[in-house]
Design goal:
44% helix; 2 domains; alpha+beta; Transposase_Zn_ribbon; three-stranded antiparallel beta sheet; Transposase
Length: 306
C-alpha cells in the first residue's frame, strides 16, 4: 500500500472486514498459514463467524485472525484498526484525541489503540541494533527550568545514538535515562555503557560517546534530531510526561528509520502489528510513573538549598 495514497483512498480500499482480514492474514503469515501450536501448515477455514477461524488439520487448534496480534481481544472493527495503523505510519503521526474523532471511537479506545501500535513499533525497533560508525550524545526532552544542578521534574535526560554512513544518519535510537543513571542533572558513564550494551551490535567498534551537555565534541546532527523529536512530541501530542515518553520516542525513531528505507511504512507497521502480541490495558497502566517521586525529590532539593 503506497503511502502516497490519501487517507480517503485508503479507506475506500480497506472498506470492509473481509478485505482487512485477508490483508492481516498475508501480513501475519506471508509464506502461508503456520499453526501457532504445532507449526503445521494445513488448515480448515471456518466461516461461521464474522471473522474466520483457522483450524489446524494436525492438532485441531483453532486460531482467530486477531489472536497473537496487537488487535487480540479488541472489539474494534479491523477496518478502524487499519485506519489507525495507516495514520500512525504517516510521518506526522496522530494523537489519540484526533484519532478518536476520525475513526469514531471513544477517547479511551483510541488512546489504547495508539499505545498498542506504539508497542509494536517499540518491539520491532528493539531487535534492530546500531552498527558500523556510531555516535552517541546526551540530549533532553523538555527544557532546563532552573540554572542549578537540580533537575526539574519536567526535564527528561536522554541518550541518542545514530549510525553514520557517508556523513548521513541512517538509523537512530533515543532512550530515556533512568534515575539510577543520573547524578542530579548529569548522565553517568553507567548510562552510556548500558546504552552500548543493549542497543549496539556487539561487533561495533567505532563508537564515540559524549555525555556532557556543553561539550564542543557533540555531534550536532544528533542534537538537532533530539530537538526535532521534542518538537514533534509537543506539537502532535501537546507534551508527554515521563511515564509513557519512551513509547513516543520509539515512534519517532521508527518513523525516521523507515523513512531511510525503500519500504512502505504502512505495510511494515501492519506486519509488526500482526506478529507481536497485544499490550494489555493493566500492563499499560502499571508502567512505572516516576513523575510524582521526581516532584517530591525536586521540592526536597530546593528546600535543602534555601
Amino acid at each position: 500500500m503506497n503511502m502516497t495514497m490519501t487517507f480517503e483512498q485508503f479507506c475506500s480500499h480497506y472498506d470492509n472486514e473481509e478485505t482487512c482480514s485477508q490483508a492481516l492474514f498475508s501480513a501475519r503469515w506471508p509464506d502461508g498459514f503456520i499453526c501457532p501450536r504445532c507449526s503445521h501448515r494445513q488448515y480448515y477455514c471456518i466461516r461461521s463467524r464474522k471473522l474466520p477461524l483457522y483450524e489446524c488439520r494436525s492438532c485441531g487448534a483453532q486460531t482467530s485472525i486477531r489472536s497473537g496480534t496487537i488487535m487480540e481481544g479488541s472489539r474494534t472493527p479491523l477496518k478502524l484498526w487499519f485506519q489507525a495503523i495507516f495514520l500512525h505510519a504517516a510521518p506526522q503521526g496522530i494523537s489519540a484525541l484526533r484519532l478518536a474523532s476520525i475513526i469514531g471511537t471513544t477517547y479511551k479506545t483510541a488512546w489504547l489503540i495508539c499505545h498498542k501500535i506504539r508497542y509494536a513499533m517499540s518491539t520491532a525497533g528493539s531487535s534492530e541494533l546500531l552498527t558500523g560508525l556510531v555516535r552517541i550524545n546526551c540530549g533532553v526532552y523538555g527544557r532546563p527550568y532552573n540554572p542549578t544542578i537540580y533537575r526539574h521534574p519536567q526535564e527528561q535526560p536522554l541518550l541518542i545514538g545514530g549510525t553514520i554512513d557517508n556523513d548521513r544518519i541512517t538509523h537512530i535510537k533515543i532512550k530515556q535515562v533512568p534515575d539510577h543513571h543520573l547524578i542530579y542533572d548529569r548522565i553517568t558513564s553507567e548510562a552510556s555503557h548500558d546504552f552500548v550494551k543493549t542497543l549496539l551490535h556487539s561487533a561495533t567498534t567505532d563508537i564515540t560517546i559524549v555525555i556532557h551537555k556543553f561539550s564542543r565534541h557533540r555531534y550536532k546532527p544528533l542534537i538537532q534530531l533530539c530537538n526535532s523529536a521534542t518538537g514533534w512530541i509537543n506539537n502532535t501530542f501537546n507534551g508527554i510526561g515521563p511515564k509513557h515518553l519512551q513509547s513516543y520516542l520509539d515512534q519517532f525513531c521508527f518513523g525516521f528509520n523507515y523513512a531511510n528505507r525503500n519500504a512502505d511504512p504502512f505495510e511494515n507497521l501492519l506486519r509488526h502489528s500482526a506478529v507481536f502480541p497485544t499490550l494489555t490495558y493493566p500492563a499499560l497502566i502499571r508502567r512505572e510513573d516516576r513523575s510524582l517521586q521526581r516532584k517530591r525529590n525536586y521540592s526536597e532539593q530546593l528546600k535543602s538549598v534555601s
